[in-house]
Design goal:
heterodimer; A: about 160 residues; Ubiquitin-like (UB roll); DNA polymerase, domain 1; five-stranded mixed β-sheet; 5 strands; about 15% strand; B: about 450 residues; alpha+beta; Aldehyde Oxidoreductase, domain 3; Aldehyde Oxidoreductase, domain 4; 2 domains; seven-stranded mixed β-sheet; globular
Chain lengths: ~160, ~450
């Protein structure tokens, strides 16, 4: 199988790998680069556990070919904490009891981050819409929605 | 909702200072940073991928298996069939003496449900394993299948599982689990009304976000480390030990991190074959269900049928209850004989009824084997019982909540399966529900207590 070189920024660091043509970004990140924070729940674009941010856009890494990401700026939940200090969304997910098994959590946090980056003071409806592509089977969603609203409030207080 | 500390205040020793207070979960920091290590987050050099060839038929005899084309597929390392498994016929609950062994790790001569594992293919990549699995040729003679529990119990129905010899689990009490309490026929004879209803449910898939799987690594000294998302570590270790005929000291299980289970990961399915594959190839092996396999292959909650016949008085007392429960185990036992048995103890519901008769059957059909799921054995029963309670209340023109107060079990009452009631709180829960739902009941019910009988 033909190998293709891919090179992109991952959480601020430059990464370069050879992958088989057709390799998904999810598999490249997890198996080649060693960032296992995006999870493979369905490998068919329905569960959202593999969500990452590519050039500021929320993307499903299981449906994104690694070779289409050359030169991209990719962010994952593993790179969210800065200098050991949790991102407000991570803090809020902890405080609001928004994780149970934790498998959907990295994808949820990615989806929520894209929302808050664009809409710092979202309504509950905005949050529900933003998380609608991410499946959680444990929490019933309510603690997750509350966590995102909590993070938004914490952000606006910090900004004030 | 307000936390009520006045309930049971005179008998409770604690101060209820934990409930209602936020407590951080120990595992949350790993979850929010992506550092929690699920089994599939472990990657080892030279790791092989296992894919199953599965039965396309509900019931069939295997005439022959031809793996020659698959073996030639680039990247294929090893192909396993039934003859490679040291102790191929097993059953999970044999550890607690619930036999006979009735299920094959890899099908041997027969398949009994659509999706049953027949041949395991090991290859360098998941894709190569998948492609090679498609090249395995299995010649089947299709047999008549049965999908309905009542059909399966009829004389002349196709025999699903030869290890049982009949299409139901044979308990020490006979063809079903039985509870006999009082005289149910005398109860019906004296009742003002009789209501008999039938309730049915379909199988339900747990659909965890993380699919079932494991990663096995051969270590030095012939030991194997198995990273798994099982919900049943020691069941899995002990069953793997039996299936592989390998002492437990050779097996090191690492788990406890489960990406959603809900009972769907208590069966011992992926680990033994993956350990065997690691042993026979000397290489790390990953066996993980695809989403399709998780939905179609993993055990669902059993389909159930519950027939309830009640005798009730105009004043609201239930005087007789007869329940026949059917649990669809699918083709193999797994945890279903236990679930059906649990139902037998549970079917009177949280109510004190003087005359009770219960039969619960664990039935074999050619459907996907069912197993544990959140309260299995009682969840569907509760649905049926509470719908029945509403129907009974309507029948005698009584408020459905007051009707439940009249029949609620209370401390000291003998349950039908001869366990005295202790620590009941149904009445207090219903009192609080009455307030919270703004569904008032007569004052005498609000004055009742689970542990103090009124004078």
């Amino acid at each position: 199988m033909a190998k293709v070189p891919v090179q992109f920024m991952l959480n601020g660091s430059e990464k370069a790998e050879f992958v088989e043509s057709g390799t998904t970004l999810l598999n490249a990140l997890r198996d080649k680069i060693g960032d296992t924070s995006p999870k493979g729940g369905c490998h068919q674009g329905t569960c959202g556990a593999c969500s990452v941010i590519i050039d500021g856009e929320l993307r499903l890494s299981c449906l994104t070919l690694a070779e289409t990401c050359i030169g991209a700026d990719i962010k994952t939940t593993a790179g969210l904490a800065e200098g050991g200090v949790l991102h407000p969304l991570q803090r809020a997910f902890l405080d609001a009891f928004a994780t149970q098994c934790g498998f959907c959590t990295p994808g949820m946090i990615m989806a929520a981050k894209v929302l808050l980056d664009r809409t710092p003071n979202p309504s509950r409806e905005d949050v529900v819409e933003a998380l609608s592509g991410n499946i959680c089977r444990c929490t019933g969603y309510e603690p997750i929605i509350q966590a995102v609203l909590l993070a938004a409030r914490a952000n606006s207080q910090n900004a004030a | 909702m307000e936390l009520r500390k006045d309930y049971f205040a005179d008998v409770r020793k604690d101060g209820l200072h934990e409930i209602g207070q936020p407590r951080p979960r120990l595992d949350s920091p790993g979850h929010v940073t992506g550092k929690t290590a699920y089994f599939a987050d472990r990657n080892f050099p030279g790791m092989l991928h296992l894919k199953m060839v599965r039965s396309p038929h509900h019931h069939a005899r295997i005439r022959s298996i031809d793996t020659s084309e698959a073996e030639k597929h680039p990247g294929v390392v090893k192909i396993l069939t039934a003859k490679d498994v040291p102790h191929n016929v097993y059953t999970i609950l044999i550890l607690i003496q619930i036999g006979p062994e009735d299920e094959t790790v890899l099908a041997d001569g027969k398949v009994r449900w659509k999706g049953e594992a027949v041949v395991a293919v090991l290859a360098e990549t998941e894709r190569a394993a998948q492609e090679a699995a498609a090249k395995v040729k299995v010649d089947y003679e299709v047999l008549p299948a049965v999908f309905d529990m009542e059909e399966a119990l009829k004389p002349g129905a196709p025999l699903v599982n030869e290890y049982h010899g009949q299409n139901y689990y044979l308990y020490d009490s006979g063809e079903c689990r039985k509870v006999r309490f009082g005289d149910v026929e005398a109860g019906f004879a004296g009742a003002d009304h009789i209501l008999e209803q039938s309730y049915q449910s379909s199988p339900i898939e747990h659909a965890p976000t993380e699919t079932t799987g494991c990663v096995v690594v051969p270590e030095s000294n012939d030991r194997f480390t198995c990273y798994t998302n099982t919900q049943a570590m020691f069941f899995t270790l002990d069953n793997a030990s039996i299936i592989l005929q390998m002492p437990g000291s050779k097996l090191h299980f690492v788990g406890g991190t489960v990406g959603g289970g809900f009972g769907g990961k208590v069966d011992v399915i992926v680990e033994p074959i993956a350990i065997l594959a690691a042993k026979l190839t000397g290489r790390p092996v990953c066996f993980i269900y695809s989403r399709e396999e998780e939905m179609q292959i993993s055990s669902p909650r059993a389909a159930e049928k519950v027939v309830i016949k009640d005798g009730v008085m105009k004043d609201g007392r239930i005087v007789a209850r007869k329940v026949t429960g059917y649990t669809d185990a699918g083709a193999y036992s797994r945890h279903s004989p236990y679930g059906a048995q649990k139902g037998a103890a549970h079917y009177p519901g949280p109510y004190t009824i003087p005359n009770v008769w219960i039969d619960t059957y664990c039935v074999y059909t050619n459907r996907t084997p069912s197993s544990a799921m959140r309260g299995f054995g009682v969840t569907i029963g509760d649905f049926a019982l509470e719908v029945q309670m509403d129907k009974l209340a309507r029948l005698i023109g009584m408020d459905p909540l007051e009707f439940r107060f009249i029949n609620a079990y209370r401390d000291g009452d003998m349950k039908a399966h001869r366990q005295p009631t202790e620590g009941a709180a149904l009445i207090e829960c219903m009192q609080e529900a009455s307030r919270a739902a703004n569904w008032p009941v007569a004052e005498k019910y609000m004055a009742m207590s689970s542990y103090r009988k009124e004078a």
